[in-house]
Amino acid sequence: MASPRADAPSKIILSASDLHRVVDRIAHQILEKTSGATGTVLLGIPTRGVPLAHRLAARIHAFEGIDVPVGSLDITLYRDDLRLHATRALGKTELPGGGIDGRRVVLVDDVLYSGRTVRAALDALNDEGRPSSVQLAVLVDRGHRQLPIRADYVGKNIPTALSESVRVSLTETDGLDEVKLTGGDL
Amino acid sequence: MTSYLLRGVSVAAAPARDLAIVDGRISDEAPSDAQIIDASGLVALPGLVDLHTHLREPGREDAETVETGSRAAALGGYTAVFAMANTSPVADTAGVVEQVWRLGREAGLVDVQPIGAVTVGLAGKQLAELGAMATSAAGVRIFSDDGHCVADPRLMRRALEYVKAFDGIIAQHAEEPRLTEGAQMHEGEVSTRLGLTGWPAVAEEAIIARDVLLTEHVGSRLHVCHVSTAGSVEVLRQAKARGVRVTAEVTPHHLLLTDELAASYDPVYKVNPPLRTAKDVHALREALVEGVIDIVATDHAPHAVEDKECEWAYARPGMVGLETALPVVLSVLGEQWDLIAERMSRAPARIAGLTGHGTGLAVGDPANITLVDPSARRVVDPSELASRSRNTPYAGTTLPGRIVATFLRGEPTVLDGKAVK
Amino acid sequence: MIKHLRSAADLDAATATLILDTAGEMAALAGREVKKLPTLRGRTVVNLFYEDSTRTRISFEAAAKRLSADVINFSAKGSSVSKGESLKDTALTLQAMGADAVVIRHPASGAPHRLAAWVDGSVVNAGDGTHEHPTQALLDAYTMRSRLGRLDGLRVAIVGDVLHSRVARSNVLLLTTLGAQVTLVGPPTLIPVDIAAALSPSTKVSYDLDSVLPDMDVVMMLRVQTERMQDSYFPSAREYSRRYGLDLARMRKMPEHAIVMHPGPMNRGMEIAPEVADSSRSTIVEQVANGVSARMAVLYLLLGGKA
Prior knowledge:
Helix content of chain A: 25-40%
Strand order of the largest sheet of chain A: 3-2-4-5-6
Shape of chain A: globular
Number of strands of chain C: 9
CATH class of chain A: Alpha Beta
Low-confidence stretches of chain C: none
Order of helices and strands of chain C: HEHEHEHEHEHEHEHEHHEHH
Structural class of chain A: alpha/beta
Helix content of chain C: 25-40%
Oligomer: heterotrimer
Mean pLDDT of chain C: 94
Structural class of chain C: alpha/beta
Largest interface: B-C, 23 and 25 residues
Number of strands of chain A: 8
Number of domains of chain C: 2
Number of helices of chain A: 4
Largest sheet of chain C: 5 strands, parallel
CATH architecture of chain A: 3-Layer(aba) Sandwich
Radius of gyration of chain C: 19 Å
Number of domains of chain A: 1
Strand order of the largest sheet of chain C: 7-6-5-8-9
Low-confidence stretches of chain A: none
């Protein structure tokens, strides 16, 4: 996908405080829909899904004092678009102790778009073990799905044009918390 | 026979004048029906003489024949070439040398002078019938096992002694075989990096040192083929200072190219002796100017495509050189025309005792002439070579000078840069 | 990303580090039940072996298969190669078969360079003559980094027949690129001329193993073929072993943390004593396992992106 020009117009969709509220809400929803996060594992998809998963775990701990195991699941080797881009460096796959067999896995990513990343994540998960169920949490859903995939937890739905691009920044990876929409006709 | 008038030509370094060719000889006056060639800006040299050519016939006619090699020679400005003996069968009998000599006369493009093998089958065991070759129609004077070194010191001594009877000369391929077993390229930094077995300079220098001592001892004549190292130059310098009757040649490629080219593993750069270092190239150039090295000889070594389009270790060594020799020497020496005439025509003819070639282009001399355009530049295109083989290391290189015409005893073999027949 | 891996010199520090990091991820995946990855599905990797080397071929084959590539083994024996087909004609055949990568093992130095000129796909050197064996160097570097935690500043001795060793050349190039300090040790007859100038100016040479050992973090022993005796590189196996073999007494001169490596196959009792080869300091078995991970990393990085 073509990235917008550096001087393209941009709009802040979520400020730092918005972003924190959204994460809090998802944490509450997870607690609600998983009966207090029992038997649940959070797996972040590198790069930005990993710090998001850790934040969710930290909020769940703050609200209920529960420690939810957190890990990461790199999907690079399962992508269906490897031949369209220069070779990518691999991210880390680290499953929490006890693994994923028989547990409820919540996949965590920053943006849900075509659904192809989640498809790859489901394939990767399948090779790692057999969870009892899989859910999906995303900070932003920008639409334009190419596969029959939906999220169980959505921080914010942002209707976008294909020419636009959603840029998530997190302090852990980018030095600030913010979600921006750039390009298109704003 | 057509007469020619070369109008406004410079003979070697002399000022421009008109030069007439009448009845195959140089004349001071052209008849009124003489064909006039505008030669202003062109340089006339005595026809070039190559003491070291591989014509591959008989045996490897797919790589070169006497005829195709002769045409390549004429296009390179040569009027005489000496054909090396490593054919199949080997030129180690009067029969084979006469066959090559006759094929050369039939082609009629250059004087082809066969070189006879020193030992039977180039095997280094037993002297070939040197006397029979000397008195054959081919009149062989130079004997060489080129491609192989006459390594056995006793055999080399005998060969040097024996050829004194007919004023012969032994041309040695100086390579101590035990020091070069499996050798692929010059032994040094580059061979170490490339993991190719090294051909140490000392393998050449040790043989030359031994052979000049043997030559001195028996009072004979030695010619050293394709000198390639700075150390060899030093050995030759000392020998000449002592008065040993030794002469030496260097190839155009050893004057220009270095072992770094092997880094491509493209066997077009594989040659024996191998390309050496920049330091060696520098020493060879100095020695050529100074006269420690007497002549330039091409070591024209055509090879079929399949013998070069393969792994380095499996490729045959050698490069074609007849059609690029003068341009390469011109790029190395610059327009020192008298020196070029000496090193590429007069001295080789003198060493070989070849009359009628390498003259001063005086009135009455046989008209063996090369006409050069020094201002032309040419990008070497292997597909344009007249040689049957394409293994030139200069593909894509721009070289100075163009051979405009070559005359063999007054008959043009090349006109306007093209072979006449 | 680079297209071919013909020499360890094709790798700069960043690329070499990326390969080692990727090998680490590949090694982690090797621990799980499902070892296969879909990454190179539909890609064809040809193992073109002109020399018998079951170990190396199996290692590459396992690496390619774990990444779901189709693997074709093309061995010099029992094929048109032994009937004298040229490398170029073989290359054109592989080209017509649509090989995305050719892994080549060849007795002639530089054969991978020639092959790369004749095929469109990637060429991986699996050992060429006495030139290089870059994936061996990668797995060695990976093993050192796993055991000792770093490569920068590491002091590595490579001991034995350096002259004929493709493993040594690739290791010198790769290790110095990654900041290690290499000392080559062996009899002068088996150390190639101008080695430092040829490979890396920081390379040191020593003829005395005992004086080198106390300063080393890694001691890598090279296989010494007994045929070398006939060529007078050294007088006898006994003398070689006494001067340059690694036995228990010599191993004790090494620092506590130092490791012993060998690319295999070993001549036990010649360059390495059995007790040393089997000691806890020896990484010889690990090296084999790491070979698959390192080769997976190389295949992924050469083939896993846009061609």
